[in-house]
Amino acid sequence: MTEPTTVTVPGARAAALAPYRTRLGRDLLVLRYAADPDEVDPLALRQDHAATRPRPDRFARADDLADPLDLGDPRPPVGTPYRPPATDTEAQIVDIWAEVLGLEEVGADDEFFELGGDSLGAVEAIVALTGVYGPRWRGDVPLELALLGAHTAAQIAAVLTDGGAAR
């Protein structure tokens, strides 16, 4: 069920909120907006709806809001430029994040919550990472705690390397 909503960002012609279920079965609320490519600043749109309730989990540009919901954008708009994984560890982490978040592409410097992640997704990602790297972890604190301050795949890879799990 799609529900029309208002947008105040220049260039956006119309917007609607629509439910979306990821391939892992997570229910998200997506704000779809009609605009020509490169006509709307996606970060401004995200800021415009930061206080909206319910708050959209994702934003997707559409040529026509009547089209079926398609989140085919490989990466949602975030504040950092895309950087591909530089190491095997970073590559494995972004693959886990992509699966948890239902995305096609995640950059090594992308912030988990900026990609649409939430606390439940963070727990899913930490459980997956612990399953892969936990047996090799040699850090002073449990791996789950060591990962709490890391918000990007690159930061997590650094924690894993420092704790001996990525070697």
TrEMBL record:
Keywords: Phosphopantetheine, Phosphoprotein
Residue ranges with Pro residues bias: 74-84
A biological process term (GO) from this entry: amino acid activation for nonribosomal peptide biosynthetic process
SUPFAM superfamilies: ACP-like
Compositionally biased residues, Basic and acidic residues: 46-64
Positions of the UniProt region annotated as Disordered: 45-86
UniProt keyword S-adenosyl-L-methionine, yes or no: no
Phosphoprotein recorded as keyword: yes
GO cellular component: cytoplasm
Pfam families listed in its UniProt record: PP-binding
Superkingdom assignment: Bacteria
InterPro entries with a match to the protein in the record: ACP-like_sf (IPR036736), PP-bd_ACP (IPR009081), Ppantetheine_attach_site (IPR006162)
Residue span, Carrier domain: 84-164
GO molecular function: phosphopantetheine binding
Name listed for the protein in its UniProt record: Carrier domain-containing protein
Organism for this UniProt entry: Catellatospora methionotrophica
